[in-house]
Amino acid sequence: xxxxxxxxxxxxxxxxxxxxxxxxxxxxxxxxxxxxxxxxxxxxxxxxxxxxxxxxxxxxxxxxxxxxxxxxxxxxxxxxxxxxxxxxxxxxxxxxxxxxxxxxxxxxxxxxxxxxxxxxxxxxxxxxxxxxxxxxxxxxxxxxxxxxxxxxxxxxxxxxxxxxxxxxxxxxxxxxxxxxxxxxxxxxxxxxxxxxxxxxxxxxxxxxxxxxxxxxxxxxxxxxxxxxxxxxxxxxxxxxxxxxxxxxxxxxxxxxxxxxxxxxxxxxxxxxxxxxxxxxxxxxxxxxxxxxxxxxxxxxxxxxxxxxxxxxxxxxxxxxxxxxxxxxxxxxxxxxxxxxxxxxxxxxxxxxxxxxxxxxxxxxxxxxxxxxxxxxxxxxxxxxxxxxxxxxxxxxxxxxxx
Length: 402
Hints:
- Strands 13, 14, 15, 16, 17, 18, 24, 25 and 26 form a 9-stranded mixed β-sheet that branches.
- The chain starts with a helix and ends with a strand.
- It is globular.
- It is 14% helix and 39% strand.
- It has 5 helices and 26 strands.
- The protein is mostly beta strands.
């Protein structure tokens, strides 16, 4: 009897050592935690802190990090593969303010994430389960090369770039002024102004207009129309991230663009709410209307996301002004409701007035943000996207789906 008891203890001890030696995960509070797995892919070091494979039940959290060991910016993808799950959602957050939520499934979360020289980005992946069923999958992260002939490359090849506008900012641009150059927060940007006809894009089943090539090589698009649902800008908080209108935008995104999310960049949208000393007007009003010096450099708060609105600066750079303009590319005769931008104009009687664009293309500040107006979405296409087409109405750019 004593021999059998000792044998059982020895067998349990040997089994424990064997499991540890082959890297089998340990169970802590209903969470399987795997051994760290460090992978080097070119100049990137990926540390799967809890392992690259997960087999979990209930709510759980795993972590990983990506380090760029080179002296230049690099790009990588984040993918979930071999996923087996039912009724599980995830939220991916990072040390550089990424925040993405979705249903757990095999999917590319991001095709092209940028990381600066000698930078480390830390990620946390939170799982929320509505039951006790096990779910499993694999996290894959890998280096992307800097590809040529991207969407931005094609736009630049199809247009002559000018350094000067034909009309001054503050004037309505009614002629085709083509593609111009300016600076934004990320570098040299290229934007369309006036009555251009070769900035059309077909994407996700909708028609879009190219606003600009962003400084990082991604491409900003605005819907060629407004949503069927009209919305107030705000009820209590007029900060964009807490506004009514952002809920409408995100709901429409979830219903219409989720299947295309790997081609849509997580981007910073500028929400300029800087109030002047007089307490009634905003810095953007003086910059755009009084001084007529719109800019792509964000001088307010940046809100991270995959969908947003035009800024008043972008409308002015495109050719809009305080006069009507039915010739520039942002005008669409089918738009029958003025639509909001995400730039502050003024406060009046304790109410907040964002800039709007009226049905005749005018940039205006005369609508209280609690009133129902149109919603015109803006997205950004990832910098490595490839396209077909020439950008005309008959032959719009179309993203090549991998």
